[in-house]
Amino acid sequence: MRTRVGVYPGTFDPIHVGHIDVIRRATALVDRLVVAVAVNAGKNPLFSVEERVRMVEADVAGLMAANEANGARIEVRAFDSLLVRFATEVGADLIVRGLRAVSDFEYEFQMAANNKRICPRIETVFLMASETVQFVSSRFVKEIHLLGGDVSSFVSPAVLAELDRKRGRPLPAG
Predict the structure, then answer these.
(1) 138 is catalytic
(2) C-alpha–C-alpha distance, residues 8 and 87, integer Å
(3) 78 backbone φψ class: left, alpha, beta (φ>0; ψ -120 to 50)
(4) Any catalytic annotation for residue 116?
(5) Is 19 one of the catalytic residues?
(6) Whole-angstrom Cα distance, residue 169 to residue 127?
(7) Cross-strand bridge partners of residue 97
(8) pLDDT (tens digit, 9 = 90+) per residue, 28-76?
């Protein structure tokens, strides 16, 4: 029996509940999901790729511990190449992309068309963001946190601690 492999790429700067929602739902489509953390220096990430990989690994471990991975194996890997090249290297059949709003669609549609042109055997699958997390983005998490807002409902406690550390805020007692 053939193993279905998917790649869910992103910058994950930082990973948040919207990403976790897509990861959990994507595991229902594949036997192995590679969460691909893009180096993406052009986006000027707050966290290094190593820090982002560690945060994603920790949050994915929570999915696995809670038996929310639908029996799929989840791996986390950094990449700095063309996405379809990376997907081919890991044996992926599909690329998973999350869509929050109509504004995401045009960019994602163009990206999917280009990826299909470069590598016709790999399909792109779009998962609509769940209504409870469709407003969450890494950019908003960072902005809200920087301005002193509470982002604890958007990220895991471990990611919140990393945001606090990165911003030089003291960790809460207890």
Answers:
(1) yes
(2) 9
(3) beta
(4) no
(5) yes
(6) 35
(7) 126
(8) 999 999 999 999 767 789 999 999 999 999 999 988 887 778 889 999 9
Lowest mean pLDDT among 20-34, 65-79, 121-135, 158-172: 158-172
Nearby residues of 113 by Cβ (< 8 Å), 6 or more positions away: none
Residue 148: alpha-carbon gap to chain centroid:
24
Known catalytic residue at 16: no
Token pair belonging to 101: 């709003």
Catalytic residue, candidates 100, 116, 130, 166: 100
What domains appear along the chain, each with residue ranges and CATH number?
5-167 (3.40.50.620)
Q: Which amino acid is at 30?
A: V
- The active-site residue, picked from 24, 138, 142, 156, is 138
Per-residue pLDDT tens for 89-122? 999 999 999 998 777 888 899 999 999 999 999 9
The answer to whether 45 and 84 have CB atoms below 8 angstroms apart is no
